[in-house]
Amino acid sequence: MDVAGHAEQAARLVNATVLDVDDLVAVLSERPALAARVTDRDCMLVRRLQRDLDPVFRAAAEGRDAAAVEALDALLAAHPVTPRLTPDPHAPSGLRLAVGGRSDAVAEQLLAESLVGLATLVADLGAARLGVCGEPRCSQVWVDTSSNRSRRYCSGRCASRVHVAAHRARRRTPA
Ligand SMILES: [Zn+2]
């Protein structure tokens, strides 16, 4: 199970604009088997997933680790996750351990993967590994699976925007 990948996918899902099936299919471009099964109901459920997960990232970003953990734990309790042995032609055993949700619906699968990915990251490395972009006009969330815990921005573009602004501010300030 790619738990780091599931945590990163959770952040991508929270950040995505999911108005219709095409939007969700675009988010799942690297998961063609899942993307092929997306329905309107999945889009509705993913928007609910976004509303549920967003407060976890906001609490972590504000340093309210206990609140982030409590919110994530409440979601785990409300949405039971089922481990499943899934065929995987690339694995030596031909199998891999995956997680599923209450039904085979794409959104339930995504929710199960998101919860397990985020919970594992928080349990292993702490709630500070979840956050919200430090660029003042950006509200995208991120997960930090790096070894040195260095992430502050959702993207390289936001990081350089902040660095350029700081550089300009320094130049305006007389020495
Ligand atoms: Zn950003």
Description:
The structure is a single chain. The chain has a single domain (3-130), classed as Jann2411-like fold, CATH 1.10.3300. 55% of the residues lie in helices and 10% in strands. The chain is built from 7 helices and 4 strands. It has helices spanning 3-15, 21-27, 32-35, 40-61, 65-78, 106-125, 156-172, and strands at residues 82-87, 95-100, 130-132, 141-143. The strands form 2 sheets. The chain has a two-stranded antiparallel sheet with strand order 1-2. Helix 4 (40-61) runs antiparallel to helix 5, helix 4 (40-61) runs parallel beside helix 6 (106-125) and helix 5 packs antiparallel against helix 6 (106-125). The longest helix has 22 residues, at 40-61. The protein starts with a helix and ends with a helix. Zinc ion (ZN) is lined by residues 133, 135, 138, 140, 153-155, 158. Residues 129-171 form the Zinc finger CGNR domain. InterPro entries: ABATE, ABATE_dom_sf, Znf_CGNR. This is CGNR zinc finger domain-containing protein.
